[in-house]
Amino acid sequence: MIHHNINANEFLEYVHDIDLEFMKKDLVLRAELLKLKSKKFVFTNGSHSHIKNITKSLGIEDLFDGAFDITDCNFIPKPAIEPYKKLISKFDINPKETVFIEDIAKNLEPAKMLGMKTVWLINDEYWGKKDSDKDFIDLKIKNLSSFLKEINILKVA
Fold it and tell me: Which of 1, 9, 117, 132 has its CB 3.0 to 4.6 Å from that of 105, i.e. a possible disulfide?
């Protein structure tokens, strides 16, 4: 944007114009999200239309209390701390009562600094696993649906 005079909204539209045919509805994820009585938010460096496309493909588009994209923080991306602070303010989130789940490990550091419990969704992508050995990660999980299922089972027990 700064160095090449690229329109940020056009760029976001271009990079998120992807074929999501491979992505199927996740009925287990939907069921487990429905069981959670806590508020749930989507926080992305992508766009609101990307959030809509992904959540619709997964069949969970109606299960969130809010969404926060890169335009909500004037194109300042995670892991800068400013977007996290704006997210907290916009949705009146108490960081001490928040679990922050993320697939890019380094994006968990600001969440931890603000008092959130942090969960890294393990993956082998270069940018995803960078800093995955750091102390700001409280828990590492392999599958979000399974993790939520365990939480819901523990709530009942």
Answer: 132
